[in-house]
Every structure is written in C-alpha cells, then in structure tokens.
Amino acid sequence: MQADGVRDLSRNHKRIIIIITLIVVVIFVALRLSRPEPISVSITTVERGDVEATVANTRAGTVKACRRAGLSPAIGGQITQLPVKKGDHVERGELLLALWNDDQQARVVLAEQEAQAARARADASCIQADIAQREAQRLQRLGKTGSASEGEIDQAVSLARSTRAECTSARASAKVSEANEDVAGANLARTLLLAPFAGVVAEVNGELNEYVTPSPLGIPTLPAIDLIDTSCFYVAAPIDEVDAPEIKVDMPARITMDAFRGQRFPGKVRRIADYVLDREKQARTVEIEVSFSDPQQTPKLLAGYSADAEIILSAHRDVLRIPTVAVMEGPRVMLYDADDEVLKLRDIKTGISNWDYTEILNGLKAGDKVVTSLDRPGVEDGAYAVAETSGQ
C-alpha cells in the first residue's frame, strides 16, 4: 500500500511539472505572438579612433592659379605678329603679340642717332673747354713773371669759363637726347606684349591683321591673351560668417574636388578675407584661400575646377567615437540591446565632432551598439528591433 502511494505521488508530481511547463510555453508563445513585429535597424559599434573639429565651405569653392593675367596691348593697333596659340607654354619675357610699329621703330632709330650726335657734340665742347682751361692756367703763370698782360689773362679765363658752361650745357642736352631715346623705346615697347611670367596660354582673342583697341573707361573687354601660371594653385571658398572667427592662417585643411572623387589632398589656410560678402540674402560669407601642402603629389589641376575645403580646427586622437548620424538632440543615442533585442534611449556627453564622427566623453563604452538609422519609423525607446546583417 505504501509503495502504491509513493507511485501515485510521483505521477502527480510529474503531471504538475508537465502542466507548469505547458503553462510557461503557452505564456511564452502568447507573449511572442502579442509582441509587435521587430523593426530592422542599422547599428554601429562604439570604437576608439580620431575625431576632428572641422568647418567647411557653404558653397562650392574654385581652384585658382596663384598667378593669372588677362593681357592686352597698352595702345590700339593692327596685329602683325601672333606667335602663340591657345595651350602653348611660354617663358617669362617671350613675345605673345606685336602691333604694327614701323613708325615707332623709326623713332627709336632717330632717337638713338640724335643721342649719339648729342654725346659727340658734348665731347667736342668739353674738349674745347679743357683746352681753354689749360690756356688760361698757362697765361696766369706767365702773368706772374710779367710775360702776359692782365687783359690777355682775363680774356683767357673768361673763355675757359664760357667753354666750360658750353660743355655742361652740351652734357645736359646729351642727357635729354638719351631720355628721348628711352621714351622712343618705351613707346615701341607698348606695341609689344611680353609674357610677365612663365605659364600656359589659356585664351587668344585676336587674329593676325585684326585691330585691337584698349578697353574704354569703365567698360571691360576681353583680354588679347589670357595667361595662367600652372606651377601653383589654391582653392578659394566661402565660409559662413559664424565659422570664420575660428579659422586662423596656417591651419591644416583637406581639399576635395569633384574631378577627383574619393581623393583628399592636404592643404593649409593661406589667407582669410578682411571683409564679409553678402551677395545673397541671409548668406553672409567670408572667403578663405587654401593652398596645397604638397603640389608635387596633386594631379594635373585646371583653373576653374570646383573644390571644397575642410578646415581642421582641432583634433583628438584615440578617443571613443560614434558616427555623427547616430547622435540625437539632448545629446542622446538609441542603444541596441542585442540580448533582449530592445532599443534603449541613452543620455551621453559629447566632445568635438564633425560630419563623420562625434567624440563620446560619457554614457557609452567601447563595444556598445548604437542605432544609425534613426529616421526609420518605429525607432523609439523600448521598441523591439533586429540588427541588419551585412549586405541587407
């Protein structure tokens, strides 16, 4: 009898365990069925790395040559020489264009001959002055011995002074002639257009035998030759007036260009404008110039390329960081609990940041998972979620 009671108790115990197990399973299934469908989210892992505080231009900047000149003759005239064409490389002092200048060349020759004649007349006059001076000195010595009269001495001294004055006048006239020679040479030079520096001819606005005229006052015209120095380039870009006070000359920068996607070129700030531009309503900017730090490593640049300049204000190395897109106002982040598959709102303290990364000072640790797809419907505190796998 006692054995039968033990067996009955054992069977009852098993039934209770089975019933409890079934109840737990039913409750679990019910909870799973009643739980909302989890949302799919993109996540990233909190890691250590570098973070930089940066500012960038508000509108596209432009690659410019350090030296670019729109050149035209100083006077009007007919083009008789045009030895260059678009795309030619020229050296400093090389002839780019010449106007008809036969009359100016003749004036130069005439001025040279007149200057030469004036110098010869001055030399002759000064030789006569030297002779007269020596004669006056000879008579003065004779006068001391009574061999020359006082009248003869006075006449000789006066002649010496007169011829010396003629010599001085002739020398001055020779200098005037030399100055006229310089004027003639300058007028001839005005008909010649020479390269002020080595570079590439970007544009040629003119043809042989055409007439060119200087720009009327206040009315700009196209230059005859557009010359670009291709040995040096920089980027000019507008920076919002709010960011401008933080920027200093020689600050490091990064340059990107649409023509070279995926590439970043090191640079540094070389100039900050001394005034604010307000060309557009509510868009006041300050122009900055950023030079390329290593011109030898840059590709073949062309003046006029669109470019962006990112100025590095400060940098923190080997700090906790997360993508800036994961930071919410507050600042806060949406933490992903992989064990419970639940999203949890977390307050954080941030440091410096840029478009890519934000420094984390407090509230997160390395290895935590945070949501980067904050704009998806249903992303909120306590929501069930599943992390997207790579390639999803």
Task: Walk me through this protein's architecture.
- By secondary structure, the chain is α+β, with helices and mostly antiparallel strands.
- It has four domains: 39-51 and 316-387, Beta Barrel (conserved putative lor/sdh protein from methanococcus maripaludis s2 fold); 55-65 and 229-315, Elongation Factor Tu (Ef-tu), domain 3 (Beta Barrel); 68-96 and 195-228, Beta Barrel (OB fold (Dihydrolipoamide Acetyltransferase, E2P)), CATH 2.40.50; 102-190.
- The protein is built from three helices and 24 strands.
- The protein has helices spanning 2-34, 102-145, 150-189, and strands spanning 39-41, 43-45, 47-56, 61-65, 68-71, 77-81, 89-90, 95-99, 192-194, 199-204, 211-212, 225-228, 233-240, 252-257, 265-272, 277-280, 283-292, 306-323, 332-337, 342-347, 349-353, 357-362, 369-371, 385-387.
- Strands 4-13-17-15-14-18 form a six-stranded antiparallel beta barrel. A four-stranded antiparallel beta sheet has the order 5-12-10-7, with no helix packed on it. A four-stranded antiparallel beta sheet has the order 9-8-6-11, with no helix packed on it.
